[in-house]
């Protein structure tokens, strides 16, 4: 690990000023990803701005009926918060499906947004990687790409975003609050993470020096019809092969509003508004779910070891929508699940 200087700050303004005042600097919160990146020399900042003392550790109600998650609230505190569990259970479920209790106790909500891909080549300094060193190439495209993306990929990078929490935030249409040298602004979660294009070294749309201060959840939390389905190689401490978060508003067995997003398949949580619209006004049925799932993957591109995700992703969507629709309904989930999606 390279040496670096570190400053502890106690206000958001001081954090931004400290970061801007140091070249090659980074913010440090829970450190559950950044410290690995430092140890492996994947990233070599000369200065860290430590955020632990900032007053961003609270979950508070918003006047519009929503909920504000301070950026330094831990993933555990968020997942077990009574309001989150009652009103945004898809968020709680997604967080608890990720990492381990120890990691969730240290990781923060702001840090979860900004964690970097777990593409093994990104962490292996002996291999080319456009995300780590722009212009060197992508080792995954012709390499072992079983865990990589099939949607929105580019010739420069096929990495996936590793977060579970962000997939639920996409369904909830959360808003990220940031503060930077030019003041405060908000970024809808759908615009926060980027596709790789020809600039895969950029994971998100933060501007230089900007700090995430909070995540705002709208009032609608889909507490009556939701699910987070995570398909992975083992039942604990594994990233998603494919995951699906769902939030539905139902009127009897008719879908009034549909939101769903996928993890493990793209450089960002993947939502397809056209597929969501296809479901709205339709009775919940295997046929409707399969049509929506097929539309999501219509433009998918599989690589040597991950093409199976195209079929798996569609089946996961059908299953997740089925589970969410059947909650609190006379509908039987088994009626759908046994229908060979
Ligand atoms: Fe690097 Fe992206 Fe290719 Fe992985 S997929 S090796 S992160 S450029």
Q: Could you characterize what this model shows?
A:
By secondary structure, the protein is of the alpha+beta class. The strands form three sheets. A five-stranded antiparallel β-sheet has the order 4-5-8-6-7. Strands 9-10-11-12 form a four-stranded antiparallel β-sheet, with helices on both faces. It has a three-stranded parallel β-sheet with strand order 1-3-2, covered by helices on one side. Helix content is 30%, strand content 19%. The protein is globular and about 60 Å long. The structure holds iron/sulfur cluster (SF4). Iron/sulfur cluster (SF4) binds next to loops.
Assigned CATH superfamily of the domain at 226-336: CO dehydrogenase flavoprotein, C-terminal domain
CATH class of the domain at 226-336: Alpha Beta
Strands ordered across the widest β-sheet: 4-5-8-6-7
Number of helices: 13
At the fold tier of CATH, the topology name of the domain at 226-336 is Enolase-like, domain 1
Shape: globular
Task: Write down the secondary-structure element order.
Answer: EHEHEEEHHHHHHEEHEEEEEHHHH
Average pLDDT over all residues = 95
CATH architectural category of the domain at 226-336: 2-Layer Sandwich
